[in-house]
Amino acid sequence: MIDETFVDLSRLQFAITALYHFLFVPLTLGMTWILVIMESVYVMTGREIYRDMTKFWGKLFGINFAIGVATGLTMEFEFGTNWSYYSHYVGDVFGAPLAIEGLMAFFLESTFVGMFFLGWDRLTRRQHLGVTFLMAVGTNLSALWILIANGWMQNPVGAEFNYQTMRMEMTSFAELVFNPVAQVKFIHTVSAGYVAASMFVLGISSYYILKGRDISFAKRSFSVASGFGLASILCVILLGDESGYEVGEVQKVKLATIEAEWHTEEAPAAFTMFGFPDSEEQVTRAAIKIPYALGIIATRSLDEEVEGISDLEKNHEKRIRNGMLAYEYLDKLRNGQDTPENIATFDGLKADLGYGLLLKRYTPNVVDATEADIQQAVKDSFPLVGPMFWSFRIMVACGVAMLIVFALAFYYNAHRVIEQKRWLLWAAVFSIPLPWIAIEFGWVVAEYGRQPWAISEILPTFLATSSLTTNDLIMSIAGFVIFYTGLAIVEGWLMLRFVRQGPSSLHTNKYHFEKINQQPAEEQGAQS
Amino acid sequence: MIFDYETLKLLWWLIIGILLIGFAVTDGMDMGVAMLLRLVGKTDSERRTVINTIGAHWDGNQVWFITAGGALFAAWPMVYAAAFSGFYFAMLLVLFALFFRPLAFDYRSKIDTYRWRNNWDWALLAGSAIPALVFGVAFGNLFLGVPFNIDNLLRASYQGSFFGLLNPFGILAGLVSITMLMGHAGMWLQLRTDSDVAKRSGQYGRYALLVFIALFAIAGFWVANMDGYQIVSMPDTQSYANPIGKVVTSAPGAWLDNYSAMPLTLIFPALGIGMAAVAWFFSKVGKPALGLVSSSLMLVGVIMTAGASLFPFVMPSSNNPNVSLTMWDAVSSHMTLNVMFVAAAIFVPLILAYTTWCYVKMWRRVTVHEIENNTHGSY
Fold first, then answer.
1. CB B276 within 8 A of CB B183
2. How far is it, in rounded angstroms, from Cα A366 to Cα A326?
3. Coiled-coil regions in this chain (chain B) (predicted)?
4. CB-closest option in A71, A98, A122 to B362
């Protein structure tokens, strides 16, 4: 039998470490491009203030990057340490993008990040810009391969189960790479990272403008961030919509739970903007709906239906019963009865093997499952509607708020009146956490929404664990919490210290705090 | 497919070896540098000199380790699954130790107080010595066999404990790993620093090499007399990968079988010991560049010795030898090995090319004088 506590702890540890890691990733993804933009202006115009901007924002990027690297190691270890059956069962497919990520992207990013920080005096301007550019390319390619791996967990294409090796094996590398879910996710995720970095630069620059220090440095940074940010948030929202379409195609359960769509509506389905989903009664109370919207987003049509939970349940029940048969034949094949007929029968059923494995939660031998077990398995084949419904709406609300901030920032900046709009500058400062909130909830939607599967419709999460004990998990979770809290304190403290110092931390004798010390009279502006 | 399955399996055994060698020569060297840091750098400027010799490279170097892990996942998923979950607390120890390194490198120079920097020096030491030790211990335990089993659904389970790994032979292997990396790093620092730091680096590096030679020789005799594993029968090497279809026994001295079957492989242990002695000599006569080349070849020798002795085993099981993992049967499918081979063939040469460019650009002796004049542009 499955020890539910142990499974929950395994999931908790992965969730903690993944969500924590992803606090640092978005800034890295976006900041590298912002650095490329700033340094390009420096190389083109030769104005030193842009080099100082590159160096200063680069410093903040570096503080963040170090933890990103450290916590990223955890992710690579954790599949093996805590999800060893997963690693065996899908390593043949899932391992490939991870290894290619190392070879193609992480080497590039990490080799050049050192040159970015320490190569200023050793490289020509163009060479250094090239280094910064390759660092950005490496970082973003990293995200590409990781999301190809993650996209495969959501929509496992290009692979097939092999009964002889008892695992999924790759059948088409091209299908794996060009998985539509992965492509959409990649763009949605990296542009979310660009938004995070833009908001970070925008908010901190606004703070300097509000404080009246290093104005021209801050305004130039503000300009870069507002332009890049506006373009990125539009991209995030557009691609978010595109993922809605992809999800509608291949992850019907996710869509139905996000929407709290209990029963299939007549096409075109309405989009529930707000409401209180009630799982007991299977209704959404006080719902505010936008007619047609869901149908259009999810199916790109007015006459296709979006399946509701009750219809999906019927479908799952059928597949679970098929899965029991598949398991029965798998057993035969693995115990010497691998006749051509049995193989052919199994091949016809194996698409539903994963659904059969869902029953392992209730009975060690799937074929012995009772009617009650099957009904329970059907119920458990959905994530809870509440967390899905709310996480999604929090993400979207943050996105819309950021769109407004970036649009106004861009508009007033273009009209050169941003200094007078102090309310907007304050709004930008207080909007700094928004991208992180949106991103973390976005991951909750994506990964919690995949439950009860580790690999969608292939491998249930509870089977994917390692053979460890609950005590092992308690100890390792405690270790992670202690370490990660320590890291967060050191990082946060250092980051705040450098943000407060601002460009004065470059020790070029041109900026606010150094000028105060030298010539208090001339306070403003360190200029090129 | 470019190659048949059997050839690809062999090639992947070699590629994993190359990645491990890359890891030892580059990131292992950084670990050695951090272990020597407090010994060869007496003042803050001296320590910064030491750190700045690898300042621009440590992050790229670390990717050899990360990529070796990724390649293990992709090419030998069963090994990745069984080893990482079996050595659970050892892996977590390595992981927590490794957290310190990026932070120490990046944060140390950001605040100029003795306490801040001294603490990060300790962090750097822990973050380097612990992984170096644990990797050695883990390798040592591969020779002894690891207590794990695999059931009919191919789920691996580990029956040992963390402290079970810390047996005498495991610890000996851990010390071999630490001394070889310190010796290698000594050559590097002697080459890349000046005056007192260079002198001390050479000195400590040579001590480490001598201890390494002694420990490696002892380990060799130990391995010659311990029980090794032998395959009695196994499925065709061209057939699908399934680690539970063979018969394995253990026999005293079986780890030397490959050397008698293929005497050419004796070159690896000879390289390990011989090149350590050659590195010692070059360091002594003030030719650290040649010393560094020699110590790199020493690392090739040591890692290939481990590989050649265990071959075709990767992770023998002491509980149930028949489910031991080998490079024939704990591997990915033909297609995945093929795809990954193409990826490695394209990217490894590229990586070597741009890494070399970076080293060339940063190549200049790091002097204490220069470091003292450049407090903000370096670590």
1. yes
2. 10
3. none
4. A122
Cβ contact B254:B223 at 8 Å: no
**CA triplet B150, B154, B157: central angle to 5 degrees?**
40
CA atoms of A107 and A110, how far apart (whole Å): 5
Q: Tokens 């220069």 belong to which residue?
A: B370
Pick B1 or B35 by higher pLDDT. B35
Residues A82, B89 contacting (CB under 8 angstroms): no
Residue A3's SS3 state is coil
Tell me the DSSP string of B200-239: HHHHHHHHHHHHHHHHHHHHHHHHHHSEEEEEEE---TTS
Instruction: Count CB atoms within 10 A of the CB of residue A26.
Output: 27
Burial class for A333, CB neighbours closer than 10 Å (0-12, 13-18, 19+): middle
Amino acid letter at A229? G
Q: Tell how far CA A73 is from the center of its chain.
A: 17
Query: Cβ–Cβ of B73/A98 closer than 8 Å?
Result: yes
Mutate to test the interface with A, among B52, B67, B150, B346 (most CBs of A within 10 A): B67
Q: What does the alpha-carbon distance between residue A207 and residue A213 come to, in Å, rounded to a whole number?
A: 9
Facing B70 at nearest CB: one of A102, A121, A170: A102
Whole-number Cα distances in Å, B3 to A28, B7, B124: 39, 6, 44
ipTM: 0.92
The answer to whether A170 contacts B70, with C-beta atoms less than 8 Å apart, is: no
Please, what is the angle between helix B29-40 and helix B114-144, to 10°?
130
Asked if B71's CB is within 8 angstroms of A118's CB, the reply is: no
Residue contact A80–B56, C-beta within 8 A: no
Closest among A367, A369, A322, A366 to A347, alpha carbons compared? A322
Using a CB-CB cut-off of 8 Å, the residues of chain A touching B157 are 467
Which residue pairs from A509-516 have beta carbons closer than 8 angstroms and sit at least 24 positions apart in sequence? A510/A52, A511/A52, A511/A214, A511/A217, A512/A213, A512/A214
Quote the strand ranges of A252-368, DSSP E. Answer: 271-278, 283-290
The tokens for A322 are 């098929």
Q: Cβ–Cβ contacts within 10 Å for residue A174, how many?
A: 10
B199-236 pLDDT tens trace: 999 999 999 999 999 999 999 999 999 999 999 988 88
Give the pLDDT of residue A335: 87
CA A377 to chain centre: 28
At A252-269, the pLDDT tens digits run: 888 888 888 888 877 777
Angle at A56 between CA A53 and CA A60, to 5 degrees: 130
β pairing state of B148-150 and A459-460: unpaired
Q: Do A169 and B152 touch (CB under 8 A)?
A: no
The fraction of chain B above a pLDDT of 90, given in percent, is 84
A432's tokens: 């700094």
Domain ranges of chain A: 4-251+383-504, 265-299, 309-379
The answer to whether A359 and A366 have CB atoms below 8 angstroms apart is yes
| pLDDT tens digits, one per residue of A102-151 | 999 999 999 999 999 989 988 999 999 999 999 999 999 999 999 999 99
CB count in 10 Å sphere of residue B201: 28
**Would you tell me the crossing angle of helices B88-107 and B77-86 to the nearest 10 degrees?**
90
Helix boundaries (H) for chain B: 5-22, 29-40, 44-54, 58-75, 77-86, 88-107, 114-144, 168-192, 195-225, 257-261, 267-284, 288-310, 334-362, 368-373
Using DSSP, state whether A120 is helix, strand or coil: coil
Residue A463 Cα distances to A454, A466, B153, angstroms? 9, 9, 11
